[in-house]
Amino acid sequence: MTLLREINQNVRRIMPSQLERLVRRGEQLREELRHGVKKPYKNLMDVFWGDLQGGGVRPLSFVRQVLAACYYPQLVHSDKLPIDVRERAQALLGACEGGSVGSYAATSGMRHVQESVARFICQRDGGVPSNPDNIYISTGSQRSIMKVLKLLVHREGSPPTGVLTPVPGYRSVTMILEAFGAAVVPYHLREGPGWVLQTEELHRALRATEGSCKPTVLYVINPGNPTGHVQSRKSIEEVIRFAAEKKLFLMADEVYQDMTFGKGQTFVSYKRVLAEMGPPFSHTVELASLHSASKGFMGEAGLRGGYVELVNLDPSIIDYVHTLFSTDAGAPVSGQLALELMAQPPRPGEPSYPIYTQETQAIRAMLVQNVGRALEVLNSLPGVSCQAVEGGAFVFPRLHLPPRAVQQAQEAGLEPDLLYCSRLLEEEGLCVAPGCEHGQMEGTHHLRISMATSVERAEEALRRLTAFHLRFMEDFS
User: Please, are residues 447 and 433 in contact by the beta-carbon 8 Å criterion?
Assistant: First the structure.
């Protein structure tokens, strides 16, 4: 008990995850089903993760073939795999210490992977140079976020470091900030026009911090999670100008960059826009750009591979960055190999290119179909409205709940959308995330539902949600 009383006060500040309560209850329900307890459903469905493979989507053949050959090198000399697969595996094994994936890797990442990622960034950004020395490999983008925030958040002194974060946003980042003792400075995305990021709101959020913290970081998510919006070049330019004016460090979480499908929408990176804006912005605005092999068409969430590219950092602090990354062992080699394969997929003319193209196009078509179907169903339900989704893996519909439902939730000490999700889980065996988990305007209620799942699973999830919602609204009418 003495040790518990001495626990880090910042850890005490972390607000419990509302979704975790649902996940634990879901585990109990699964156990009950295994023991023959009768339920209105035969199985539970989780549609809150943006996890392609967890949602029943097969991994990309090229990726798994190369990884198989790296883990079982005898396949490198077998004609059972395409020649480009074997050549890639041989090159990757050559980049591993001792020619083995079981070896340690440098704490900042395998040099071969850093160079591949740098080429990918340069190609993505229309030739804007990328220096491998500025790229740090980690166990996913979330770990990269932690490292960058460790560099920027001052644990001691008053006022605390302020980090501007989007609402709705990514709950894990808020939890990291709470653990680090930083001040979370929320700025609201405007739902009505499609979750737009407005610089007027950034100014308002900054004014609200006067005397309470020292604003240092501006964190943006593009494409949005959970909102599914994609920022235009003009919007990104405005954000960069704001960061420059207010001397804020920019963190751009861009892990869904290859999952854009809105009409006329294309992803453009913060780094590219920054470079093309020219001096003084291109030389002075400090930026951390994050990406991951967990999301997008790769969907290799379990292999844990991500990177952060640091732009315009003062050379005098680079040594501290190296030191900070050295406090961890290197990212798992398996995740780094997956990241390399994401950065450098098969090229036209190579044997694996046709099937790779076919598989990635099929995933895109599946997402477009799932999102379109979800918008159609959700917007047809009474008391539900959902903004158009331009990218990412989620829909984030708004619930216009009856006053009696809101009152019952308040009496039970629950957020109304958490009450809704709890009943949905119990009655239909469907687990979705409540909007309160991600932040929302006061008085509004939402759900986060993953569309990164097979068409069949998406249809079943929408069927269960529809059946429950109609009952719920009737109960409280």
Answer: yes
Return d(Cα 166, Cα 460) in angstroms, integer. 31
Summary mean pLDDT of the chain: 92
160 vs 149: CA distance, rounded Å: 13
Q: Give the model's pLDDT for residue 1.
A: 45
Q: Which of 167-171, 219-223, 300-304 has the highest mean pLDDT?
A: 219-223
CA distance 295 to 299: 5
Question: What one-character DSSP code corresponds to residue 157?
Answer: S
| Beta bridge mates, 431 | 46
pLDDT in tens, 383-405: 999 999 999 999 999 999 999 99
> Could you tell me how far CA 96 lies from the centroid of its own chain?
28
Give the single-character DSSP code of 250: E
Residues 63, 129, 321, CA angle at the centre, nearest 5°? 80
pLDDT top residue among 71 and 51: 71
Q: Residue 239 region, left (φ>0) first, then alpha (ψ -120 to 50), else beta?
A: alpha
The tokens describing 254, both together, are: 């861009």
What is the Rg, in whole angstroms, of the alpha carbon atoms belonging to the chain? Answer: 23
Task: Tell me the percentage of the chain whose pLDDT exceeds 90.
Answer: 78
Specify whether the CB–CB gap between 220 and 201 falls below 8 A.
Answer: no
Task: Yes or no: say if 15 and 184 are a contact pair by the CB < 8 Å rule.
Answer: no
Encode pLDDT of 331-356 as tens digits: 889 999 999 999 999 999 999 999 99
In sign, the C-alpha dihedral spanning 349, 352, 358, 360 is: negative
The two tokens of residue 435 are 């909007």
Cis before residue 416, ω within 30 degrees of 0? Answer: no
Peptide bond into 345 cis (omega under 30): no
CA distance 52 to 372: 17
How far apart CA 282 and CA 277 sit, in angstroms, is: 6
The first and second tokens of residue 380, run together, are: 């047809």
Q: How far apart are CA 417 and CA 135, in angstroms?
A: 40
User: Among 402, 442, 431, which residue's Cα sits nearest to residue 18?
Assistant: 431
Q: Find tokens 């995933």 and name the residue.
A: 363
Four-residue CA torsion sign, 52, 53, 57, 59: positive
Residues 368, 374: contact at Cβ < 8 Å? no
pTM: 0.93
Phi, psi of 279 (to 5 degrees): -65, 150
The SS3 of residue 439 is: coil
- Report helix, strand and coil shares of the chain as percent, to nearest 5: 50, 15, 40
Task: Name the 3-class secondary structure at 147.
Answer: helix
Rounded Cα distance between 287 and 351, Å, is 38
Residue type at 290 in one-letter notation: L
CA dist., res. 433 & res. 12, Å (int): 23
